[in-house]
Amino acid sequence: MSHAMRRRSGESGRRGRFFLAGLALLFAQTAVAQMDDTDRARRMHDRIAGVPPSAAVLSQMAAHIGNSRPDLAAELAMQNPAFYNVSLKNFVTPWTNEASTVFAPLNDYTATVIGMVRDDVPFNLVLSEDIIYTGANNLVTPNYEQTSNAHYEALEEAGADLSNPAVLVRRMQSTLPGSQISANEAAGVVTTRAAAEAFFSGGTNRAMWRFTAINYLCRDMEQLHDVTRPGDWIRQDVSRSPGGDSEIFLNNCYGCHAGMDSLAGAYAYFEWDATAGRMIHTPGVVQAKNLINGNVFPYGHITTDNGWVNLWREGSNSLLGWRGASDRGFGAKSLGAEIGASRAFSVCQVEKVFKHVCFHGPKNQTDRDAIEAIADTFEENGEYNLKDVFAGVAAHCMNEE
Ligand code: HEC
Questions:
Q1: Antiparallel, parallel or unpaired: β 270-273 and 278-281
Q2: What pLDDT, on the 0 to 100 scale, is given for residue 35?
Q3: Residue 76 located in a structural domain
Q4: Residues 187 and 241 reside in one and the same domain
Q5: How many domains in the chain?
Q6: Which residues, at least 6 apart from 92, have a Cβ–Cβ distance to it below 8 Å?
Q7: Which atom, in ligand 1's list, is nearest to the CA of 249?
C-alpha cells in the first residue's frame, strides 16, 4: 500500500461517524485500492492516445508503472499513432476556430501543432517560428495551397498517418508557394491559413489577440481587464462615452481596450481575403480594417504601423510572469515570442493537457502544485517539450477513477 493511500485510509477512519459520507468515501477508496498497475496502464493509455492499448503494450506499461516509471509508460502510449491522429487532433482543433469546436477538418494550424509535438520542437515557438507541417510532396492531391484547406482534408480522407515523419513534413511558411510572409514575419500558428480565416476575417483583428490569449494564456478578456493602464493606444473606433456615459468607458471598455489595442496593432498588416480564400500580408501597409469608424472618437489612437507594447507587464497582469526580450516590438512574430516566454504560457499549456488527459481541471492544491511542477519541467533547459507535459500529467492522474 502506498504512503498516500495509507494516509487516506486513516482519514476515512476518523470520518467514520459521518455515516453516509463515510460510506461513499469507503466505496471510492475500495475502488482505488483494487486498481492495479494494469488498470492504471489501461487508463493512462486510453487518456493519452484516445484508444485502448494492445495486450503487449498494456503489460509493458503496467511493468513500467510497477517500477515507479510512469513516464516510460506514458512514452509507450504516445508511440501509438492514435496519439497524433486522434488525441492531439481533438486537443488542438478547438483552438483553430472561434466556436472552439472539435468538429472541424484537419487544417494547417492543427497539423503544425501535431508535428511540433511529434518532433519535440520547443513549444514556446508555437506563436513565433517560421514553421508549418504539410503532407509530403504529392502524397495527396492537391499539395498545400494558400487558397484552400483541401490539402489537409485530402490527408484526412486518405487516412494519412500523422505520426509518420515521411507523411507529415516540417517546412517553412516563408518558402511555401504563394507565401506573402518572410522568415522574420512568420509567427507560428498565428500566421497559418486556418488561424487567419478564423481570427483575421472581418472585425478589426483584435479577435486574433483575444483567441491567442484564450488558447495560450488560458485567459479571456474579462480576466485581463485592468483599468489602471495608460489609455493612449485605444483606437478611434472605441466610443469614449458609450450611450452618452463616459463612466462606462472608464470602468468597462477601457479595462480591455487599453491593454488589448496596444497589443493587437501587431497584426496591422494582416487580413483574411474571403474571396481569394487566403491570408493577406502587406508589410508596411496598414490594412483598412484597423482604421474603420475613425469618426467615433477622432482623438483616439491611429494605427500607423505594426508596433505593439505590452502594457500588461505592469498592473494586475504582471502576475502572468512576462519574461520576453522586450515589452514592445513590431509584428506578430515578436508578440508571439513575448507570449511564449511568459510563465502564464507554460502553466496554460500544462492546464490544457491536464484537462485533456485527466478529464477535469485542477480540483485542489495537490493538482495546482502538480501543474506548477510540470510547468517547471516543461521550461527546463528551454526544452518546452509537450510530450513531457503529457507524461507528467498522465502520471499525476493515473490513480483517478
Ligand atoms: C472584456 C473585454 C472588452 C470590453 C470590456 C470591451 N471590449 Fe470592445 N472588444 C473586445 C474584443 C475582444 C474585441 C474584438 C472582438 C472580436 O473581433 O472578436 C472588441 C472589439 C471592439 C470594437 C471593434 C468591433 C469590431 O467589429 O471588431 C469596438 C468598436 C469596441 N470593441 C468598442 C467597445 C466599447 C465601446 C466598449 C465599452 C462599452 C467595449 N468595447 C468594451 C473586448 C472588450
A1: antiparallel
A2: 82
A3: no
A4: no
A5: 3
A6: 109, 110, 113, 114
A7: 37
